[in-house]
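Lab meeting minutes (informal)
Scribe: AK
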Amino acid sequence: MILAVDPRSPVPPYEQIRGQVAAAVRSGTLVPGTRLPTVRRLADDLGVAANTAARAYRELEQAGVVETRGRHGTFVAATGAAGDRAALAAALDYARRARELGLEDAEALRWVRDALKVAQA
């Protein structure tokens, strides 16, 4: 896995790292069980502060993309399970709110499609 941080980007370095790792996991470039570099090693390799690399790993862990096994390191999580649970939770929250607003299924789905288009841009 090759990561790069663009210091000229308006996207914060931790977010660049988080996004690249998450994309590598989604694409299958990083498979479950793959051990990731230590925070210090990642920071050194990318020329960022250790706190920046640590924040990226924390956010990835909160999203269920990676898991930290104490002194053993950080590994790509058994994807699917955590990601699917998070997606289902978000979908259920939206479905409940759509019902509270009195939206019909077709209308609620239209809003989701519109939101996905906006998020893609």
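Next up, CB showed the second protein from the same session:
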Amino acid sequence: MAGFAAEVARVEALGATPADVGQGDVTWRVLADPEGTQFCTLGPA
């Protein structure tokens, strides 16, 4: 899980912000780039 957390931290440092799309408790994080485009970062299953 450390790799997943590091990747989320990396893209947040590049300007991504958390996005809530009603995903609930899942193994991925939905983020949005500075222009508002949403994308998922997947963690290990």
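CB comment: The chain has a mean pLDDT of 90.
No objections, moving on.
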